[in-house]
Amino acid sequence: MDFENSLAFAKHLDERDALKEQRNKFHIPKDKNGKEWLYFTGNSLGLQPKKTKGDLQVELDDWANLGVEGHFLAKNPWVKYHNFLTENMANIVGAKPIEVTIANTLTVNLHLLMVSFYRPTNTKYKIVIESDAFPSDRYAVESQLKFHGFDPKEALIEWKPREGEELLNIEDLEKIVDEQGNEIALLLIGGVNYYTGQYLDLKKIAAIGHSKNCIVGIDLAHGAGNIQPNLHNSGVDFSTWCTYKYLNSGPGSLSGIFVHERHAYNKDLPRFAGWWNHKLESRFNMRKPFDVVAGAEGWHLSNVPVFSMAPIKTSLEMFVEVGMDKLREKSILLTDYFEFLLSELNSNRIRVITPKNSNERGCQLSIQVLNADKTLHNQLMKRNVITDWREPDVIRCAPVPMYNSFSDVYNMVRILKELL
Questions:
Q1: Which end of the chain is more exposed for a tag (fewer CB within 10 A), N or C?
Q2: What residues of the chain score a pLDDT lower than 70?
Q3: DSSP per residue over 350-409, as a string?
Q4: How many degrees, rounded to 5, is the angle at CA 374 between CA 368 and CA 380?
Q5: Helix axes 324-343 and 7-15, enclosed angle (nearest 10)
Q6: 58-320, what's its fold?
Q7: What totals of helices (H) and strands (E) does the chain contain, helices first?
Q8: Is the preceding peptide bond at 401 cis, omega within 30 degrees of 0?
Q9: Which one-letter DSSP state was computed for residue 50?
Q10: Are 145 and 152 spatial neighbours (Cβ–Cβ below 8 Å)?
Q11: CATH code 3.90.1150.10 for 7-43+324-419
Q12: Global model pTM greater than 0.90
């Protein structure tokens, strides 16, 4: 499409947007004068669907009216509440229902999954991460290495961009695994890099790791509800993600887990056990020995936090109603238009470091600021353009296809131009 740098053109794109009505289903934050913010931080915390409050009230009412009997008599019986989310979540990440569950939180799940899938030996013990992995991933991996008696300085391998570049090159990962694969036990990679917004080829990463019998895990914190990872077909062994970013479930909400079907019935996988990953059929017969549930649900340890799951249920239903194909189509058009407008600024003070190829990015564009000048970000915030600063020098902007418009993008860049 040939873009135009005008508000009239942005409004034209909004008029022909098949998803334009979705915006009205969300609460858009406003300033003290009632003017809507230009909200570009769905990659950090998604906005609240208007339907969430009512759906949560249903569970509160059932608690008030039924007490403990809500586990079996509630409109959505709590004892199996997580199962109401499974199929929709599986559709969004491209998995089979048996491969997905929602439980715990992201870093907790990273540790639980590494308990099962990081099984080092004296000769095959190293872990590969991207050099600019999200800090909590690095902390989790380093602590796992130390727990098993290894020195992260020697056992942690970083997949780095080439000198003078910001983006990762898949050939460099191939070289690492080709040269050190006999010593590598696990590849734990962020599917969409939080800093650059680069969307990596998960199927290729899985093939590279498996060529040397390495386990492959993916952190999809910045991917779930944003890109289409097709987890089952990718072949990765496991993945986990949060739901409070693109999946709009509320601050600090629960995490998704994917474990590939080939591991579904392997009861010999070491794991931590709890009440809720014991089979439901005998769960309430308290004297029975532990009998693990098949599939991803086998990593679901504790009783279901219904009030945290209710907003997830609401959001997932909205995603499935719209469809990831349509969301992805709009997302690509939004970021293409955003990138076009930024290029029209012709500024030597900023540059976009996210891949130009739409298939190699999600809906985030990362704007690098010369001399790591945070002033520009602060000025945007004062104008009610809500973006996200990440050290040392990037403003992260995510026009989310569920609720951001083309006019949002145009007005954001117009304000940015004034500030520049």
A1: N
A2: none
A3: EEE-S-SSGGGB-S-EEEEEGGG-THHHHHHHHTTEE-EEETTTEEEEB--TTT--HHHH
A4: 90
A5: 170
A6: Aspartate Aminotransferase; domain 2 (3.40.640)
A7: 15, 13
A8: no
A9: T
A10: yes
A11: yes
A12: yes
